[in-house]
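step=predict obj=Cation-transporting P-type ATPase N-terminal domain-containing protein n=720
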Amino acid sequence: MAKKKKTTNDTNEISSAAAALEFGISFDELEKLMQTRGHEGVLTLNETYGGLSGLGQKLKTNLITGLSEDESDISLRLAAFGRNEIPPKPPKTFFRLMVDALQDITLVILIICAIISFGLSFYHPSDETFQAELKPKEANVEWIEGAAIIVAVVVVVLVTAFNDWTKERQFRGLQSKIESDQKFNVVRNNIVKQIPIKDIVVGDICQVKYGDLLPADGVVVQSNDLKIDESSLTGESDLIKKHESKDPFLLSGTHIMEGSAKMLVLAVGEHSQTGMIFKLLGATKEDDEEKTVKNKKENANGLVDGEANERLVAPESIAGAQGNNHEATELQNVEIAKEKDTAGDDDSGGFKVKERSILQAKLTKLAIQIGYAGMTIAILTVIVLLLRFSVEEFIQRGERWSNKYWSRFVRYLITGITVLVVAVPEGLPLAVTISLAYAVKKMMLDNNLVRHLDACETMGNATAICSDKTGTLTTNRMTVVQVYVSEKHWKNVENPVRVKEISIPNKTKEILLEGISVNSSYASKLLPPPEKETLAKQVGNKTECGLLGFVVGLGGNYNEIRQQYTEEKFIHVYTFNSVRKNMSTVVQRPDSATRMYTKGASEIVLKKCKTILNRNGEIVPFSTVDYDRLVQTVIEPMACDGLRTICVAYRDFPSDKLPDWDDEATVVDQLTCVCICGIEDPVRPEVPDAIAKCRNAGITVRMVTGDNVNTARSIALKCG
């Protein structure tokens, strides 16, 4: 083991040397750089490495076009800085799982009873008085009781261990599949590509946006109103503003809460913040090997077991910190939590009772109660037999005490112990284990992978389910079905024929097409339909994809508009978040005018509008009376049809009097309303039946959404 560890260290030294030689910077230096924060970090970056451009040169990266797709270059980076994956801890062996299963108190009681029963079955007192009472000699079958208990225990242990072993393998397979499916946007050869997270290397330029969980450590190259939630690392819930000139360092495992940016990757895998946390938790293979060597050395030096088995336990916030937005991250959380449990088991040294589920706790309590009852009855039985014998022999017959009576007393004691053994319910754990194993198998047929048997029982105790609306109860395929534009309310515009009938002035149409194309994430786009499908594939934010579909329906080309206004040319971006409920992008138009496009929840955006485009494309005043009328005649009817209402607006700024872009309240105001779109997200066909089954089972299903209350009510009614 020690030899293997040495080899690993040698490899690391070679890698560091190669990095220093080829790139002019090693991962040790990058790791130290990532430890700095704020003003100190910016100073170190500028003075030691010559700023972002100097760092880019040392890493042989073009900060605009990204890496080339040269295989030899990627291989060199992998050798120098490592791969973006954390080697998992080896799974428990089947024998270890059997030992874990044996730690159930009920099974321990059963084993003790089986041993007693087995031992007593071969004990026969050899006394004449006793022999006279015996019937003609028969085959000894008393051992069957003890053997039956042992068989029941073995079956329970094997079923539990085999289930955990197979589910562990399936879970790891599923986890690796999900990790391989999880992709991230990187710039290579000046083209934005989606690549698997594990293929990200040091020197890559990543595009990050609202909602992303950072897969590696890096430094901001270019940003738009970027705010990060670092609570997973620091415990502080306040959002941290990041900018290339103030605090440019981004850490893996943190969430993008606002804005977008481009990031130069500086640390991946075990050298990133997430990798270091995994090491502290003892959740990596390498760490496990090192710990084994260390423990052996310490034990050889005669240290106390407690010291040899010392372990650093990271705060719970770290273990649960790895994000909610991606399935793979959730699975990763479970893995971390499990590794913590395993770590505790591995180092405990002695007998450790694992945390029991509710049913196991109740069964253990029942088994103990039955044991107490059995013990009471056994003691009473022995006392009654002794009293009866004593009264008959010593009082009625007047016999004197002699040693021949000892065998009779032993026989009564054996009878009492037999009563106690019979009272213990050996079939109870077996029945529960087999029924839970059957439940797991049934759930597998429903495409639900249950990792531990007792999880079935935990789910069986659920009384309430809180469900998100978008994408869970609905299909998450957004389509614009109604639109209010140029003082007219159009319906059924999802029909290609109907959408072409919409007649609006050219000026309004130009603003509408530009407003939607520019003021949406450039990661949102429509791709050609997959095989056997007719509808375009929506990639990115589904609401924005629905609006882009409307642009295409009106005969616009959002790609051409985006090429005209590249992200680097944006003056300022106010990204969407759950507080703002709108998004604004400021651009400079070809005629040098500065224009801001805004889109968002209709009630919020309309309140900021002071003018509106009429049927001739002219700007006319928009009063509070007009607002109330639009809400009653357009927004509420759309919401009652279960539509999400989005308002598109804009504002022009005089080029000689530009505002302070950080003063959002002043900037995003005095808007001109262009249109209101009603977007439909159909309910999944299987949802109403599923909710009806939940209600029949006594489970309350609640829908959680940030939508308009009328939209929410309409969807809730459709779902039942």
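step=describe
The first strand starts at residue 183 and ends at 188.
step=end
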